[in-house]
Records
---
Amino acid sequence: MNVSDVGGDESLVPPLTVWGVAMCVSGTLITTENAIVVTTILATPSLRAPVFLLLISLGLADLLAGVALILRFLFLFCVEPSDWSELLTSGVLVTSLTASLCSLMGVALDRYLSLSHALTYGSSRSRRRAAVLLLLVWLGACVIGAGPAMGWHCLGEPNSCSVARPLTRTYLSLLCGGFLLVVMVTLQLYAGICRVARRHAHAIATQRHFLPASQSYASKHSSGRGFSRLILVLSVFVACWMPFSLWGLLGDASSPPLYTWATLVPAAGSSLLNPILYSLRNKDIRKVLVQCSNLKSSKRVTSPSA
């Protein structure tokens, strides 16, 4: 929704809509969910492997996306809309989506390296490399997100607008082209994961006569579950990111705004699904959360007698 869409006096705050309520609720859920994940990892000294650094980065990026949605709601329905608020929320959202997508690529790279270099990956050297990589990712995301505030906007030239105002068509095309490149690289990494997993499964199959029957069945069952989870992750990843990446390249300012929202909502919705697919399914993180929950329950039980 743009400032120009509000009828009458532009100084009036527009009335609250269903879309506004949904924006506020989803932003709050995304922020809360990812804050829990980030706090849990940071507060647990044992969670310092490269994968947890990547999950912290992913959680921070998605948390920032939730904050961007809340800010967008506040600037649209609680205070008088202005150009600077549009530039601020657009920049924060671009930064968060860029960092989130690059972090997802980093998670795929981590899974590939942990399979192909199982004996050496996870050392302190690998953690330092992951930290440097994430620092570069966030620096790049912040530079890209600063584009609207640095002049890559169409507030003064409506004809140069893209499907996502106030971003220019050139800026959004470059952004979506980069998104597609990251998506393709991530898919290639997952294809490599499948190849490595098949080689491991073949190596296990050739040694089946050395294993007990129950252990052989357990290995096969675990492998099947692994591929099912991989297919689920890939399906959600492509469904969330591919529509907006393609629409940003193909659409223009004359296209119906509904199409833009229909493709942008899944991209933002990935911030709600990522903690479930990548962090809360991790057994180490789940163990910490269960321990915290049990500790709180025991305190509630003992507090009356105290």
---
Amino acid sequence: MIFNDEKTIESVTRYSDLYEQALAENDVRALDAFFWDGPEVVRYGVGENLYGSDEIAAFRRARQGGSPSRKVLRRHVTCVDQSMAVVSLEFQRDGSARIGRQMQTWILTDNGWKILAAHVSIMADKPETETPAAL
């Protein structure tokens, strides 16, 4: 296993940049192409749980106006080997003070890097150490 191979990090970072561009432009065809095309792919969004590429594609087409504009605050790429990586990203939506988080598991396929699992969330106003979690 080659952990955090520099060329792999550069490649995944480039794909992550292209994903962010497609997200900003609401290019649903490009966004679909970034995800693994099959029932195994999962995307947990801020307000939805999507299983399989068909559900993810349907969500993108149903969302009015696409993803809210956002600024990437921080990105961290960790490569498990030369064919799998995790992209952890913090962002802030325009007009909001809250911080969002996105984690994507990318795998290298014969058709380039694809997202196999994704999770998007918006942070609570206060950490659970200050305000206990609701049951």
---
Amino acid sequence: MKRILFSICLFVGLASVSMAQSAQYESVMTKNVTMLDDSANFNPDRLLEIGNTFERIAAAEKTQWLPFYYASYCYVMSALMQRDNDKVDDLADKAAVNIEQAEAISPKNDEINCIKSLVATSRIRVDPPTRGMKYGMESAELLAQANQINQENPRVYMLQGQSLFYTPEQFGGSKTEAKKKFQTALEKFSAFKPASAIAPHWGEAYTKGLLAQIK
């Protein structure tokens, strides 16, 4: 009888600890994801700070893919916004390491493919003439794979449109085709429901901004 009671108490105790840890994880993640919803934080240095925080969360929560995902997101966005091209590859490398760790936990994930596509895109800006074809094709292939996984993900269409928008017409870009992608993305955003408060949900305002430039 004592053994049964001990087992029950142990189980309850472990469950309580697990619930507390889960609540703490949700709380700290929500706090930092909310920061990414604030445009005031979208500058290279601030994104690096938030990315470092997500890396620390990831180090403590090694079975969760979202901290690695958001760390990578912050680093690649910082890379894309850098004025100093000498810093881009290092940031892209940091983003790549984190998103690979996220993928190891959650394979065949369309959201992860979107970030991997952005990492490839960020590398182009260092030297477009020599890197454009290689990383442009890599980025497009990753988005095509993401679309196969989930055709309802608005970020896939947004990123495809972004590529068409910024690529010169002589290299396959098209504002007309970009507009179609952005319109599709906004249709998908209107129906999109994130799996949770900390699940990826970025991109709608940015899509509207790019579409407005075309109009």
